[in-house]
Design brief:
By secondary structure, this protein is mainly α. The chain has eleven helices and no strands.
């Protein structure tokens, strides 16, 4: 099932080509629309990984500066704009993490999670969400963390995730399977054998049950 964000972006998929064509000509309205469409999602993605609002905001700014530079030079994407923006963000986040590794608070991560899907989850969902976020942040490797967040919190396909990370699909599958096994094992040690589906992150609990 598509998330609300993914469904919304799907509706604009056909118009992306027109939007990109105008943006590559440095059309102001097109550039503003691109920022409005993607800045919030990019901010949430950066915040999940770096844990600092100011750093996440700076990363989003850097992403769009890079995009403008590419357009000004006659380069930049002619398709798959969302994946292209996430790829820039990924490399900026990696650079930032190398400079200063920060510990994300569960409170900040949980507040970001509220934007993923609509609905009012009960206390069990909240606890599960925090537990999974904690495992993702503290027990997975950097590669595993990026793959899980892109695949199950950002709703990217295997092919899109591979393109963003600069890897092949088989690599993504291997890292994903190892990460899910690690999350399952950690949840099992906490007495959670079969996580229930949650409106906050619908896809991840189902794959954790296999």
């Amino acid at each position: 099932m598509l998330s609300l964000q993914a469904a919304f972006l799907y509706c604009f998929m056909e118009s992306d080509t027109t939007l990109l064509t105008a943006a590559r000509m440095m059309n102001k309205d097109a550039l503003v629309k691109i920022f409005d469409l993607y800045s919030s999602a990019l901010y949430n993605y950066a915040l999940r990984l770096c844990g600092d609002p100011m750093t996440a905001d700076q990363i989003v700014g850097d992403v769009f500066v890079k995009l403008l530079e590419q357009f000004s030079a006659g380069n930049g994407p002619s398709a798959n704009l969302r994946s292209y923006l996430y790829e820039i963000a990924y490399h900026r986040i990696v650079d930032e993490v190398r400079k200063s590794w920060r510990t994300v608070s569960l409170e900040a991560a949980a507040s970001v999670g509220q934007d993923i899907h609509s609905g009012s989850p009960d206390w069990e969902d909240k606890i599960l969400f925090k537990q999974v976020l904690h495992i993702i942040r503290s027990e997975l490797t950097d590669d595993q963390r990026h793959v899980i967040i892109l695949r199950f919190l950002e709703d990217f396909s295997l092919q899109e995730t591979a393109a963003i990370l600069g890897k092949n699909v088989n690599w993504v599958k291997v890292i994903q399977n190892r990460a899910l096994a690690k999350v399952r094992k950690s949840l099992s040690h906490q007495g959670i054998k079969k996580p229930i589906p949650s409106p906050r992150f619908r896809t991840l609990p189902s794959v954790l049950q296999t």
